[in-house]
């Protein structure tokens, strides 16, 4: 999957979510007009129905947005190139750490089990500066991080947590 196709998929997903949000906004505005100027005897039923539909709409838009962002990152990880790996021999185990460039100014950081090369944890993140793979084996908490990224998106604690291991099982 090329850079353009991955960005097109994200653009289509974003356009879909924006369209659904605009339609929901139009529905909400028309419902508010009905609540305000409608008959008073059925107002409570309309308010309950409006609240239920609003809750379902917010959940749906949130789910679709999260799913489209996840699918975009899956497609983006297929563009991995110029990978660099480094072995980590911490007191908590032996790991192989790999950092790759992705299209669209993103990076991919992965931690593998040294013997079986099984994926234990991974991150996809935005790169702001020149990427640098840093493996800190010393100290209280050994960590792996990309020095060119900002925040915790590019940091993985060694050994990876149970949540990281579960997330690594998905594409």
Number of domains: 2
Radius of gyration: 23 Å
Give the helix tally: 3
Q: Give the ordered list of helices and strands.
A: HHEEEEEEEH
Main beta-sheet strand count, sense and barrel state: 4 strands, antiparallel
Q: What is the count of β-strands?
A: 7
Distance between the termini: 15 Å
* Structural class based on helices, strands and sheet pairing: alpha+beta
Structure description:
By secondary structure, the chain is α+β, with helices and mostly antiparallel strands. The protein folds into two domains: 3-77; 81-168. It contains three helices and seven strands, in the order H-H-E-E-E-E-E-E-E-H. The protein has helices spanning 3-37, 43-77, 162-168; strands spanning 81-90, 93-102, 106-113, 119-126, 133-136, 143-146, 155-157. The strands form two sheets. Strands 1-2-3-4 form a four-stranded antiparallel β-sheet. Strand 1 and strand 2 (93-102) form a beta hairpin. The longest helix is centred in the first third of the chain and has 35 residues, at 3-37. The two termini are 15 Å apart. 16% of the residues are buried. The model is unreliable at 1-5 (pLDDT under 50).
Could you write a compact summary of the structure shown?
This protein has 171 residues and is an alpha+beta fold. The protein is built from three helices and seven strands, in the order H-H-E-E-E-E-E-E-E-H.
Which tags fit this structure?
171 residues, three-stranded antiparallel sheet, four-stranded antiparallel sheet, 2 domains, single chain, alpha+beta
